[in-house]
Design brief:
Layout: H1 2-27, H2 32-53, H3 63-89, H4 92-99, H5 102-113, H6 120-136, H7 142-168, H8 174-195, H9 208-236, H10 238-245, H11 248-260, H12 268-299
Length: about 300
């Protein structure tokens, strides 16, 4: 029991780090493309250095896996660029709150990709989340609606790579998945910056403060946090971890109040809508766990 408490404490510290990624978007002076480019560059390089130390191979099981992870890396790049664009147009709280709808995008993507039945519970929870978003955005101006659109697009991209990774992780170690997706995202963003005529010395003109935040984001909030999270899941289970990860927007909002002073920009509607969304997502996970346990119990019942 004491051992499990230790892992749960570690998990929530990791979730705080995940939540801090949104805060960084509000602290630095870089645009969204530059933030993500530095983030994936530092993450990919640090993983490449780490692999020989932990005796991790770069080889994938088949050529198909290379193409799958390259494609998924494109979704990762799109997810982070739209996420930071949402934050910079509005607030870290709004960007992360939109990101919390990833779970419900997964609800309709999984039946298509995994070929499983659609869940009525997830449909009901989706309606509650939509109402929560309506509540949050009731008094928005044009720029805030644009931020909302970017945030919801970010959640969709996150759901896409989450569902794909959910299939691939049974065939490829998680660290290798992270390396190839970070590298793929780096290549895609480098081409994107090239099309914008931004590949040049100016890309490397960055203040020491911003560079420090980029190191923190790439090394601690990405490479370190991801590897520790994967390790923790082995001990507490995927469901407990995924249930806890839904608290990320709560941690981000709590961090944004003292660090970014966002409580001065957010009204009561935002907090009411946020509460509706977070409660719906947590209820969705809890009800699914109950139904799964009930199904397992019924399937193991022996009739004399």
């Amino acid at each position: 029991m004491q051992s499990n408490v230790k892992y749960f404490v570690a998990l929530h510290l990791i979730i705080v780090l995940f939540g801090f990624t949104g805060i960084v978007g509000g602290l630095v002076s870089l645009d969204s493309f530059s933030i993500v480019w530095y983030r994936v560059l530092i993450a990919a390089v640090s993983l490449a250095i780490l692999f020989p130390i932990i005796k991790q191979s770069f080889r994938l099981p088949s050529p198909r896996h290379y193409w799958v992870l390259i494609g998924t890396g494109c979704f990762v790049a799109a997810h982070w660029v739209t996420f930071y664009e949402s934050i910079q147009l509005s607030t870290a709280s709004l960007g992360t709150l939109c990101l919390s709808t990833t779970t419900l995008h997964v609800a309709w993507l999984e039946p298509l990709i995994m070929k499983r039945a659609f869940s009525k519970v997830e449909l009901v929870m989706s309606v509650i989340v939509v109402y929560g978003i309506y509540f949050v955005s009731e008094d928005f101006n044009a720029q805030e609606y644009k931020a909302l659109a970017y945030g919801l697009a970010s959640a969709l991209f996150a759901a896409l790579f989450a569902v794909i990774n959910g299939k691939v992780v049974h065939e490829v170690p998680a660290a290798r998945i992270a390396f190839y997706e970070m590298t793929s995202a780096l290549v895609v963003l480098t081409f994107a910056l090239g099309f914008q005529n931004r590949l040049g010395p100016d890309l490397f003109v960055i203040s020491m403060e911003d560079f420090g935040w980029m190191l923190f984001l790439g090394l601690i909030c990405t490479s370190f946090a991801f590897l520790v999270y994967v390790e923790i899941v082995k001990y507490i289970g995927a469901f407990a971890a995924s249930l806890s990860i839904n608290l990320e927007p709560v941690y981000t909002i709590l961090l944004a109040i003292p660090i970014l002073k966002e409580n001065q920009e957010l009204n009561a509607n935002f907090y009411i809508g946020s509460a509706l969304i977070v409660v719906a997502i947590l209820l969705n996970a809890i009800i699914k766990r109950y139904l799964r346990r009930k199904s397992q119990s019924n399937s193991t019942t022996v009739i004399d």
